[in-house]
Every structure is written in structure tokens, then in C-alpha cells.
Design goal:
Length: about 180
Amino acid sequence: MFEHFLEPVILRPASPAEGAGHAIGALIPAIVALTVAALAIFAASRVFGGDRGLEGGRAWAERFPRVHRLLSNKYWVDELYDATVVRGFWATARGLFRFDASFIDGLLVNGARHVTVAFSLLSGVFDKYVVDGLVNLVGTTLDAGSRTLRRVQSGSVGNYALVLAMGMFALVCLYMALRQG
């Protein structure tokens, strides 16, 4: 199924003979490039070949100073590249650094830190006054209740028998009241 994905945009010849004509189209630029290179090599060997090396070069430089300057400076490609690509990347890098320092690190990272510290302070206040306050309230309540129970728990068996008798009397009275009603 995937192998048919590009079929609508790729033209396939109906037969192999139809596709053969396209191969010559790719050879023409290659032949032209090789011809130009061969002619340049031949011209250079005629101008600079043999014992004419440096003298021939100087003669050409004096005869064609603008061409010599253009070729000596390599068409100013390095200067153009530095002025456009390198400086463009440096400017982009500086801009991205400023964005990172002010927005990413400044607002987001430091902002998250400030929010975390604020919630930490609120959590500490809540823990100190609400949670610890409730724990202390439970402790105080149990302490007050235990003081009352300490008076009842005197260790005297007579007091225990009196409380037991009063409790049984209260239960009998409650039973009688509910039975009549």
C-alpha cells in the first residue's frame, strides 16, 4: 500500500523505450562541464605552462588588473559569507540568548521559583497554625477530659460499687419508662 503513495506524482513510462530518451538530457550538462574544464586546463597550460609560470601570471595581472583582483579575492565569497551568513547567525544567536535569559530563565524558571517559594511559605503558615493548632486542640481536650476521669478513677472499690449501682438503677428506670410508653 505504501509503495503506491507517490504514484500520482511520479510519471512512469508505459514501456522502457519511452524512458530511454531522458538519459541523454542528463548527459548534456555533464558533457558541457567537462568541455569547459578541458578548455580551461588547456588555456592555463598555454599561459602558465613551461618556464612561463610566474612571469605569465604577472603579465596577466598587469594586463587584466580587475580580473586579477577578483580572482585573488576569490570573488569576495568569504567576505559576503561573513557579512550575511556568519553575522546573521551571530545576531540570531544573540537574540535567542536574550530571549532565553529574559523569558525562559527570567520569567518561566525564576517565576516558577517564586511561585514555589510562595506556596512553601503558605504551606508553612498552614502547618504551623492550622495543623499544629488542631493537634494541640486534641491534646488539650484529652488532657481536660482525663482530669475529670482521674477524679472518678480514685482506686476506691466503694466508689466503683456506688457508680455501678447508680448505673443499674438508671437503666432499670429507663427500661420501665420505655415499657409503659
